[in-house]
Amino acid sequence: GEELIVENEFENFSSLQYQEMLVNLKENIDSVIAETKTNSLSLQEYKIKLLNGELSLTKNQDTKISELSSKLDRYGKYLAQKNNVQIDINDTSATLALGGLYSPEDNLDTKYEKFKTIKDNNLQAKIDNPWLKCAAIAIGADALWALGGSSASAWTAAAMTKAFTAVAKRFLGPIGVAIAVVSFGVCMASE
Fold first, then answer.
1. Which of 48, 153, 186, 188 has the CA that lies 20 to 30 A from 111?
2. Of 159, 164, 157, the residue nearest 181 (C-alpha)
3. Spatial separation of the C-alpha atoms in residues 13 and 146, rounded to whole Å
4. pLDDT tens, residue by residue, 21-41
5. What is the pTM assigned to this prediction?
6. Are 108 and 102 in contact (CB under 8 A)?
7. What value, to the nearest 5°, has the Cα angle with vertex 169 and ends 168 and 172?
């Protein structure tokens, strides 16, 4: 069945292969998004406006991004099944988020725990926090503060995936998650 294909495809997937997948996906998504971007906005500003529902993509762009994201979707499904992460693996938004948030060698329960300073009142700690910086780049500062107020006190893979998905899919569904999560993942990899 399909499950065997998914397992074999990612069984020996290295962190380097994972990073290459994210970087390539981000470049491909960026070029699709750039088709309709105006010169008055940077690509990052344009993405945030898309994620906030202020602008929209064409049906053709949606289809292209959906097709480009299929490997990340399969990886997210694989990760959820392998690690028994409590998400709906039929929800593309959730599998894309999980796949983009976690590389093959990550400890799914502790990867983001060290960034709990989101509740910290120390401004410098917030500025120096790579998780916050990358999340702001990926979903925008306004959405990030909404996420900070959410109940993501448990920094488990399921909780992180649900919180990220809820914010990123508001207006564009799985397409929004794909756009946001690859920006986030590439940013975190460079930290």
1. 48
2. 164
3. 34
4. 999 999 999 999 999 999 999
5. 0.83
6. yes
7. 115
